[in-house]
Structure formats: C-alpha cells, structure tokens
Specification:
The protein has 16 helices and twelve strands. The chain is α/β, with parallel strands linked by helices. The protein has three domains: 154 residues, Toll/interleukin-1 receptor homology (TIR) domain (Rossmann fold, 3-Layer(aba) Sandwich), CATH 3.40.50; 175 residues, Tetratricopeptide repeat domain (Serine Threonine Protein Phosphatase 5, Tetratricopeptide repeat), CATH 1.25.40.10; 89 residues, OB fold (Dihydrolipoamide Acetyltransferase, E2P) (Beta Barrel), CATH 2.40.50. The strands form three sheets. A five-stranded parallel sheet has the order 4-1-5-6-7, with helices on both faces. The chain is globular and about 75 Å long.
Length: 443
C-alpha cells in the first residue's frame, strides 16, 4: 500500500479542466454507462463538453491501479459512488480526499445506507439517490450530478470568481440565451454584469464568444482584448482568450492574425488540447491537412478522448485520400453509426440469445445477488471469445465471465473449453437489458 501512496504523492499529473473521473464498484458499471457518464458529458465547460472516465477506460496492458491513480491526479473533479462500501472504492476515495477538494460522493439509499456510513466519512457530504423510486423524496442521480459538477466547475475557474450571486445568475442566463440562438438578447446581460464586476476577465471572455457567434467580429475582438487587459487574467486564461481571438480572426478571414493568435496561445499554455484542436481546424480551412493532422495528434497526446481519436482518423483520411470530400460532421455520424452496429453485434455475441418470455423475470428474481453477496451457481461453457467466456446458465439464459476476471491464458486452458461445467458467481443482473454479469467462484 505504501507503494501506491508514493506513486500518488510523488508523481503529480497536469490537471485537465474538463475531466471528471468516477470511482465505483464493478456492479455499478451499467449505472455509469447509462446515467453517470451521459449526464456529466452533457455538461459544457467553456463551450466544450466535459469528459467522464472510469476504470472502464483502461485499454492498455498496464496495471489498473496505476491507471486509476493517474486519472485521479489529472481530473478536475472526482465522483465517488460508495454504494456497498466496496473496499477498493473506499481506498481510492481515501487517496482522493488526501489531495483534492473537488470530490462528489454519491450513494444509493435503497437499503438504508444513510444509517450505515463508515465512521471516517460520516462527517463528509454524501449525496443519496434512489434508483428504485426516482419520483420519491431522494434527488435523482442525474440532478445530483448536474448540480454538483456545475458547482465545482464554477469554483474551479482559475480567474476571479463571481463576487455577487446576481452576476453569476446573469452569466447563466446569458449562456442559456446564447445556446438557444438568442445571442443578441444575451448582450444586455453582459452589459449588466460588467456594471456589477468590471474587472472580471471571464465576463469579457464570454461576451466575446457571444459576439463571435452572432458574427460581430469587430466588437468580439474588442471584448476579448479587454479580457486580456484585466489584472486578474492568468497566463492560462490568456491562452484561452487567444484561442477565441484566433477563431474570431479565422471566421473574419484575417487568417494571418489568426495564426499569430494561436502562436501566442501556445507560448502561454502548450498543454492545452483545445488549442491544438482549434489550430487543426484553422489548418483545415486553409487546405493544410497534413498540418491539421499533426495538431490533432498533439491534442490527442494531451487528452485521449474518443472525439479527438475520431478527428485524428478524419484528418488521416483527408490527408491521404485526394478525393475525400466528407465533412467532419458527416464522418462523425458515419463513425457513430458503425459503432452502434458494432455494439449491437457485440452485445448479441457476448450475451447470447435470451428469449423474451415470462421465464426471464422469474429467473432473474430467483438469481438476483444481494448487496456484497453474489449468487453462486453453475453453468456450461458455450465458447471462449477475446473478451471472456460465455456460459449457459439456463435453457434461455447466458452470461459472460469478462476476460479481466479470468487467468491471462484462459483461452488455452482445458477447464474453460466448450462443454465444461463451471462454478460461477452472479454479481449483477441488468433486468432491463437482460444482461448477466459473472465471475468465477473462489477456489
């Protein structure tokens, strides 16, 4: 354990403003995919969506705990689901709370967890949600995440915070108007904000963005330059302003000045993935696809997101195929369509057919594991596949033992050959999707 603590304390990572990392037990995997991740990634921070990761994003061959430590260090905000008080989650939460302030602790209260909190976190703020009765007295998990992530994002602005609730509310109203296509109306809110907090660089920054969106480039440049002049503007914030100035000049066809703005932003903050992504779009507009590809590569080394990965593939295609005419929006829709088809095929492959008859509900009810106590049973192995072993549990029910819960060479072991009986533990059943999640019973 000392080794893990040393890794955490002695190897700091650069914080990624838009990254939220979630620590959770394995039986909350479906909850993460269906509610936690989509809710957080629908939240915008400085005009770009948040990224929400968990241990499920570890695709490399390295140690999983090393990956978790790295992401905890990089994350601006950490969400911890302590439902069931899983030992690994509680250990990781201890690491988080020793070094971070932006922590959101959530817990399902379906089994009266409010009265069972461990003594060492009873004094912490824990947000309880209820999945069984979402219309009940408990706040929904989506509402908790939206409110808390927005709160911590406001608190983590590197520039000055709003000194008045009135100015903060006006900013929210202005951004809502802008998103709904009413940017001209939002301008009145910015004028009122400046009267309340004249030296707040962030007001001028968002004002400039709004003016760019309504194509008033001259006035947008004026407000963004005012943002640069405020004493409270840090170098990192100035880099963000220069990125926006580059966009203003690019859209206004002042391409030479746009390039100069990107250079200034890089001088101030060379570890900004948004900078290189915007810079790639600039080179794309000039037909410089090779340079665009190099900028996206740089962005991807800083922040490994699915969108940047797709954008890199897009520019590789655009650079190598002379007659490639597809826009990025078209390319992205194509990738999403292909991914959906792949996931559908994979789900059918992983889980096997489960016939939609009345027996499923009865089977699921009789085999549902209790909290921290998996349901033990036996099954017959149907086949080995790269992601694990598919097991027949009943005439119409199959489940998957994931590869991560099997020996590394399971594909070559006789005990996992098709037709063999295997003792398994059911640790989660998703009734809606009819998925059964398995592990091997302890020897």
């Amino acid at each position: 354990m000392a080794t893990f603590l040393q890794k955490f304390q002695n190897n700091p990572r650069k914080k990624i403003d838009r990254l939220v990392f979630t620590i959770l037990p394995e039986d909350r995997e479906e909850l993460f995919k269906s509610k936690i991740q989509p809710t957080i990634e629908a939240i915008e921070y400085r005009n770009s969506p948040m990224d929400c990761h968990s241990y499920l994003d570890n695709r490399g061959p390295g140690n999983l705990l090393d990956f978790i430590i790295e992401k905890i260090q990089q994350a601006n905000i950490v969400v911890a689901d302590i439902t069931g008080f899983n030992a690994s989650v509680m250990f990781e939460l201890g690491l988080v709370m020793s070094r971070k302030e932006n922590v959101i602790i959530i817990c399902e209260n379906a089994t009266g967890a409010k009265n069972e909190l461990p003594f060492n976190i009873k004094h912490e703020k824990v947000h309880f949600y209820d999945l069984e009765n979402p219309s009940g007295p408990e706040t929904t998990i989506e509402e908790i995440l939206k409110e808390q992530v927005q709160f911590h994002l406001t608190e983590s602005l590197s520039g000055p915070r709003f000194n008045s609730q009135e100015a903060q509310k006006l900013m929210k109203d202005a951004i809502d108007l802008r998103k709904s296509g009413k940017g001209e109306l939002a301008l009145y809110a910015f004028k009122d904000m400046v009267k309340l907090e004249k030296g707040n660089w962030y007001i001028y920054y968002e004002w400039g963005i709004t003016l760019r969106i309504i194509k008033d480039y001259k006035e947008a440049e004026k407000q963004l330059n005012l943002a640069l002049q405020q004493p409270s503007t840090s170098n990192k914030d100035k880099a963000q302003v220069y990125i926006e100035l580059a966009r203003v000049n690019q859209e206004g066809n002042n391409l030479e000045e746009a390039g100069a703005c990107f250079d200034k932003a890089e001088t101030l903050d060379s570890n900004n993935a948004d900078l290189y992504e915007a810079w790639a779009d600039y080179h794309d507009s000039l037909g410089e696809y090779g340079k665009a590809m190099e900028k996206i590569k740089h962005a991807y080394t800083i922040k490994q997101t699915r969108l940047l990965k797709i954008k890199l593939a897009y520019y590789v295609e655009k650079f190598s195929e002379e007659n490639f005419k597809m826009t990025f929006a078209q390319f992205l829709r194509l990738q999403d369509s292909q991914q959906t088809n792949f996931n559908n095929r994979r789900n059918r492959h992983e889980q096997g057919p489960i016939r939609p008859n009345g027996n499923w509900e009865n089977w699921a009810k009789s085999h549902m594991p209790e909290r921290n106590k998996p349901f033990l049973t036996e099954g017959k192995i149907i086949r080995n596949q790269p992601n694990g072993v598919l097991v027949a549990l009943d005439e119409h029910v199959t489940g998957l033992i994931p590869a991560k819960k099997l020996p590394g060479n399971f594909g070559h072991m006789d005990r996992f050959a098709p037709g063999k009986q295997v003792k398994v533990a059911i640790y989660w059943i998703d009734k809606n999707k009819r998925h059964v999640f398995l592990s091997l019973q302890p020897e």
